[in-house]
Design a protein that fits this description.
The complex is a heterodimer of chains A (about 100) and B (about 190). Chain A has about 100 residues and is an all-alpha fold. Chain A has 3 helices and no strands. Helix content of chain A is about 80%, strand content about 0%. Chain B is about 75% helix and about 0% strand. Chain B is built from 8 helices and no strands. The chains are: A mainly alpha (about 100), B mainly alpha (about 190). At the A-B interface, helix 1, helix 2 and helix 3 of A face helix 1, helix 2, helix 3, helix 4 and helix 6 of B.
């Protein structure tokens, strides 16, 4: 099941990348990033069956980082929403030169 | 009459492919939904399927963590923020990018699909496995399910584990500072 897991992981990662590239809602883009993190976690777990439990340890770390990232990122989105009243990235371009 | 072992492996493959296809279908539904709430619910579905796959790949603890942390905590946080922002009706949220976004996404999708094809052809993955590794990993481990994860976490990766606590503290402080409403009128 290793090859199937890695293929599924790659497909899910690709769907996440496509979501980031085609959507403009900041929250949905953020959820796409979470999907990519999940896809990588699946690779870790699948390979940990061969390479020992270190892969699962890394999944624990990834989940922690994802939780911290979600908390900070959503706080940033709320702060942006307070300023601009939108989460559409088309309207959030103050850093554009 | 089918052998019991053979039947077991057939059921295993069927369940594995079932959850894998559910994950892919839910992920596709997730990126195509206009409403952020619907997208979040589909993403929860993807994460549940992945939790089932983790359990099938002998990572029961990670599967439980997936349900508790991802679907339980992170997605609830997302839904809470979506509810807090009150973005309006999905019909007003036509948020897809223009033509070039789709062209770029199609290109990236095709390249990554080609990589998957290359990965699954000619047993590339099987040839990458160092010889003798499969035998050691397949050996029965002591300490139940959590022991093999906990032992390296608190010995070999102890420094990284402690750094994670610093990261979480920074994230807590950062989230509070960013989410705080400015009361001082300047």
């Amino acid at each position: 099941m290793l090859v199937e897991s890695l293929a599924l992981s790659a497909v899910l990662f690709t769907i996440g990348v496509i979501g980031v590239l085609t959507r403009r809602n900041a929250i949905i883009i953020f959820m796409c990033v979470e999907l990519m993190l999940n896809a990588v976690n699946l690779s870790f777990v699948a390979l940990s069956k061969l390479h020992g439990a270190a892969g699962q340890v890394f999944v624990v770390f990834t989940m922690t980082v994802a939780a911290a990232e979600a908390a900070v990122g959503l706080a940033i989105i709320i702060a942006i929403f307070r300023h601009t009243q939108t989460v559409n990235l088309q309207n959030i371009n103050i850093l554009k030169g | 009459m089918m052998h019991a072992n053979e039947f077991h492996s057939l059921v295993y493959s069927f369940t594995f492919y079932f959850f894998g296809l559910v994950a892919i279908a839910s992920a596709l539904a997730f990126v195509t939904r206009k409403s952020p709430v619907a997208a979040a619910i589909w993403l929860v579905n993807v994460m549940f399927s992945l939790a089932a796959l983790y359990v099938m790949l002998d990572a029961q603890f990670i599967g439980a963590m997936q349900v508790l942390v991802y679907t339980g905590a992170i997605m609830v946080l997302f839904l809470f923020v979506i509810m807090l922002l009150n973005l309006g009706h999905p019909s007003e949220l036509a948020d897809a990018r223009g033509k070039w976004g789709y062209v770029l996404a199609l290109f990236v999708g095709l390249v990554m699909l080609a990589e998957v094809m290359a990965l699954t052809r000619d047993n590339t993955v099987d040839r990458m496995i160092p010889p003798g590794l499969a035998a050691t990993a397949a050996a029965p481990t002591t300490g139940g399910i959590i022991g093999p994860i906990a032992a390296p976490l608190f010995t070999e990766y102890l420094f990284a584990f402690e750094l994670t606590s610093v990261l979480l503290l920074a994230a807590i402080v950062g989230a509070v500072v960013l989410g705080k409403r400015r009361t001082d009128a300047r």
